[in-house]
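Archive entry. Fields below.
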Amino acid sequence: MSSRRVGDLALFMPGMGWLAVFFVVPLIMIFVVSLGSRDAYGGVVLDRLSFDNYLRALAPAFLPTALNSVKYATATTILAILVSYPIAYWISRYGGRHKVLLLVLVMLPFWTSWVIRTYAWMIILRDNGVINGILGGLGLTSEPIMLLNTDLAVILGMTYGFLPFAILPLYVAIDRVDEAVVAAARDLYSSGRGAFLHVTLPLTMPGVIAAAILTFIPAIGDFVTPDLLGGAQTITIAKVIQTLFLTDKNWAYGAALGFMLMVVTVVVTVGTLRVLRREVIG
Amino acid sequence: MSRPRRDGAPDMEGALARYLIERRMSRRQVLGRMATLGAAAAVGSVAAACTTGATAEPEPSGASAAPSGSPAPTPQPTPESELYVYNYADYIGEDTIPSFEEKYGIKVTYDFFDTYETMTAKIATGDSGYDVTFATGVDVPGFLARELVQPLDLSQIPNVVNLAPEWQDPAYDPGNQHSMPYMWWTTGYGYDTEKIPEELTSWAALWDSRWKGKMAMLDDYRETFAVALIRLGYSINTTSDSELDEALALLQEQKPLLRKYTADDIGDLSSGDVWLCHAWGADVSQAATERESLAYVIPEEGGIRGSDAMVLLANAPHPIAAHLFINYMLDAEVSAANTNYIYYMGPNEAAKAYIDPAILEDPTLNPDKAAIDKLQEILDLGPDLEKYQTRWTTLRAGA
Amino acid sequence: MRRDRNPLLTVYAWLVYGFLFAPIVVLILFSFNDSKRNFIWRGFTLKWYPTLFANDALLNALVVTLEVALIAVVITTILGTLLGLGLARLRSGAAGSVSDTMIILPMVAPEVVIGISLLIFFALLFDAHGSVLQISIAHVAFSISYVAIIVRARALSLDPRMEEAARDLGASALGAFWHVTVPLLAPAVGAGAMIAFALSFDDLIITSFNAGVGSSTLPLYIYSRIRFGVTPEINAISTIVVAVTALLLLIGWRVGVIRAGARRSRPTPAAGIV
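PREDICTED_STRUCTURE:
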């Protein structure tokens, strides 16, 4: 047993090692920066280290933006999973010989630049854009509907952007489930729905969890989509952090806020994972 | 590598100390290098500019009354064979780099940054590897204070005589000792005359609730605060807390009327989603090629003038080639070619002979003297910049 | 299997693919737009394609991007797979929680934080100021987690007895790993690799802080054009990338290189989720 244990450890050392050197160490460096303060020139002063920046980061002024980020990320995650599950299922069960091709087709749009993709969405959603053009042409509307620069546009854009992050892990999980098991379940529960709810869904739960993580977490950090597709009111915490670093040149404060975001997200995610694991997996 | 201390944190002080010893620099310099630049520096010249207004003092070694063509550089040390330039993509004439390469046989690597802020963050380390970059005039004093740029050897830049008189001694860099102006612009607002059939002349239009949801302000805190400050009749470089609070309140009144804070004024105006947009003049001119009904206004209360400048970075690996390049960019024809391509107005008097007449006659790009007199320049504010930044965050982050 | 095919599901699938490709269609269409800007259709033209090929900066950026993506994807996939597998097997409390947290951190950290931390790291410790290698290292650091999570999810549902069985039958540890576990993990590894490629190819912020002289990538180029107008040249190059990839796919499919996972494992009915 212990040699297997060593073997297992050996498996993940290279990956962990890379993370340790090229992620954790720089992170520690920037943590030190977050304890510092900003000097007159926007440089970092490390003379008096303190947690002042963290206290400032708890300012109530940030609450609306933090809530915005959570709102968008949550909506995006739920929507992405709801949209992705059936298509992942379809590829796995109906794809046959073309499964891999179909999967790669899912990824294909994402090998273009997101700037262009977002511009394309802007072309589609704007007041004189494709959708309004069609609606107006069909006589359904007399005035263009404001689609761009709204919450709707942001969530749509974000869901679109994270779709492959949801489809792929869901596919991997669904594909794993043996057809025979599903057929047996269908007989047992005498309905497709019963089989799905009681057998397929629980069996694919790790995939759903993976999809949720892979969508929610980066979504919290996405500041570009809300920035380009959103309006004056849709600022996110990620954008605030970005602004603090680059525009305000306040690396210390930005770093502190960034760390707070990370800590909160990690705690929430790991906590949810534990609960889910216990409940779902047992 | 550093040895971890008891509490697990790596020995930053030790690492820094070793770095210092190797580099034989002062601690202050390292701290300066370690983060991005900010502001403040030549407080003296800034204060002088604020109180007396930017009056040009003729630079003895360069200015002459009649700008001539393109004098050849006086005999100078041999340039290096390469040059590294860092700029926005396409913010230079189409042919400028290739013709420079051909003329002097120097290979140019022209790199581009995605945003201006990335550039400032990268060169803040003091050793980005680049020779020349393009800094906004406001930032030059700050770069200088952080020792991120080196003084220019003006004897290698004879073309400086081509600069218009008002650019021979800018407030941000007296005598152009550390930078050479590149392009300048104005900020006002653009609007669609078809959607808004009135003739607008005041900043107040951007607070008009009739255009609710169809307006945008620039996603730039100095520019946006400047508008509010101008409306209130204060200096756009004020550091008074009470004045800034008033400006903030004014902007908060405006926010519900806005569709967005934009970084792409051209796109917004030309797509028609925004009818009234706080914008840079050259941008409105660009957008007007897509949507002819656009008009540009430098409001009667006053507008803003901005510019950027070429700087020679500290630790530039090819300083001589860099000087050659900067001089080349000040050549009348080259400057005109740049202007004709990117549609921004240059500070080069001699170039006017070669600039596309359409540009010279376009008041959006080349406003007349009356308009220019109404312009204020955004200046470096040093540590007081934070007053603007915190209020901007409050404005953006609040409901 | 065939009798319970739901045609509605197929319709749905087509709709989803439509949704996925809608912006791409618009993108491709606008690469023929006779206008310097992207927003308004002015007329049909082919001129952006030849212009693109004359644009050295753009082409160079594409080459750099592909170089970085190649290096990053290979390393990320290998390390990420090993990591995911190790995590799935290592379930005990302490190590489990710590690794869970470590894995999530790169995904949670705001890109600007990661980017600047690496900038400082490389500048202070290695006096490095950006290069293809530096970008690749950065990309690996932030994408390992994605691969690891996908592989872990898959590995969690693998029966560990399969490998044991192979060992019993005489295979070496490495052999059992290579001939049994790896094929079982293949779909997850493939999925991870595809995500890693997309992440690297399109990364902007972290790359911007770690690029140096001569190592600008395509996203950097494109984003730097936003201020002055994203010309249809960008659409053109994206169209070409999509077209080339689609072409390679087609060839691969015809040639039979791409085949569905014919070797799928069969878990015992009582395997459950764990």
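CURATOR_NOTE: The mean pLDDT of chain A is 84.
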